[in-house]
Design goal:
This protein is about 45% helix and about 0% strand. The chain is mainly α. The protein is built from 16 helices and 2 strands. This is Endonuclease III homolog.
Length: about 350
């Protein structure tokens, strides 16, 4: 995941490029379709502790108003990763559904919980090292940070990006001229660093040859770049181009939306099966003014309260509106197996 989405994410006006470190935390997971192609890479260890220092808070509401919203591009459905889903679900963008009951009260409740508890997603200073970059370089840095952040903890991505910056490699031209071994050594230990180094070289070459050192300016063109899926494409459009063409959905947003009963498969009552299905389902009813703020809001909520394992439903102030509340608790059997002492032979 994370954008102006949060309570403090630093978004600027369209005249000034947007900060990039937001990406480095919200994109910690990728859809299985893309992850399965990466498993052969070596050296995908990720570790460390998220920094505890808070960065200054900024008004989400003020930032969100500055971001230009645009309706999704129908051509986006041609991307191979979601082509089958699009073909099976009909004209999904033309459909609309009734908003879930009490969704506004739920969002307001989550905002209050987020403001009172610090989440890992709040820990990276989004302005460090990038404010001095020229517009083209800054947009390229956004793209690089987004590619590095998948399957990688935020502080690890941030440090890798800083090493690239210190070595003058956060421009398409310099990255294109650098050798792959150098790039790989600088981004280590981000997840799948071998494959990402190759993707960065390929992306830099495309940006130099086709876009005069800049990055693509549409979702459809971004999706053609190596390593870029729907989630990264929409993040880059917001952070680099100050345009909102879709909701950014990671595993936290996907999980929380399904637990709240906010999303479903096209024509069915079952929950969505992937972040991409969740994105499309949310966009059918969530007002566009919420498309930016919903990501970081649910990412932080998913990190602190609505956690993947043993969610803290007793502490959640909107549990009365959640159909999944108090249903995901570890069984006594699993607890006893964990706590029971080993038998002596």
């Amino acid at each position: 995941m994370s954008l102006s989405l949060l309570r403090h994410t630093p978004y600027l006006t369209s005249a000034v490029p947007l900060p990039i470190q937001y990406f480095f935390i919200s994109l910690t997971k990728m859809p299985k379709t893309r992850l399965s192609t990466m498993r052969q890479d070596s050296g995908s260890e990720v570790g460390g502790v998220v920094p505890k220092n808070r960065v200054r808070k900024r008004s989400v509401e003020m930032i969100a108003k500055e971001v230009k919203t645009e309706s999704p591009d129908q051509k986006f459905l041609r991307h191979p990763e979601i082509e089958d889903f699009a073909n099976n679900s009909g004209n999904i963008y033309s459909q609309s559904i009734q908003p879930p009951a009490n969704w506004e009260r739920v969002i307001e409740g989550i905002r209050r919980m987020r403001s009172s508890e610090h989440a890992p997603v709040d820990s990276i200073d989004p302005d460090e090292g990038v404010t001095s970059l020229q517009p083209k370089e800054r947009r390229f840095a956004v793209l690089v940070g987004s590619l590095l952040s998948s399957q990688t903890k935020g502080h690890v991505t941030h440090e890798a990006n800083q090493r690239l910056l210190e070595n003058g490699l956060l421009s398409a031209d310099s990255m294109n001229k650098a050798d792959e071994v150098t790039i790989k050594s600088l981004i280590y230990p981000v997840g799948f660093y071998t494959r990402k180094a190759r993707h960065l070289k390929q992306v830099a070459k495309i940006c130099v040859s086709k876009y005069d050192g800049d990055i693509p300016g549409t979702v459809d063109e971004l999706l053609l770049l190596p390593g870029v899926g729907p989630k990264i494409a929409h993040l880059v459009m917001i952070m680099a181009w100050n345009k909102v063409e879709g909701i950014c959905v990671d595993t936290h947003v996907h999980r929380v939306s399904n637990r709240l009963g906010w999303v479903s498969q096209p024509g069915k009552k079952q929950g969505t099966r992937s972040p991409e299905e969740t994105r499309v389902s949310l966009q059918q009813w969530l007002p566009k003014e919420e498309w930016v703020s919903i990501n970081l809001l649910l990412v932080g909520f998913g990190q602190t309260i609505c956690t993947p394992l043993r969610p803290r439903c007793a502490k959640c102030t909107v549990s009365e509106f959640c159909p999944s509340a108090f249903k995901e608790i570890s069984s006594p059997a699993s607890t006893s197996r964990t706590l029971s002492p080993k038998k002596k032979h």
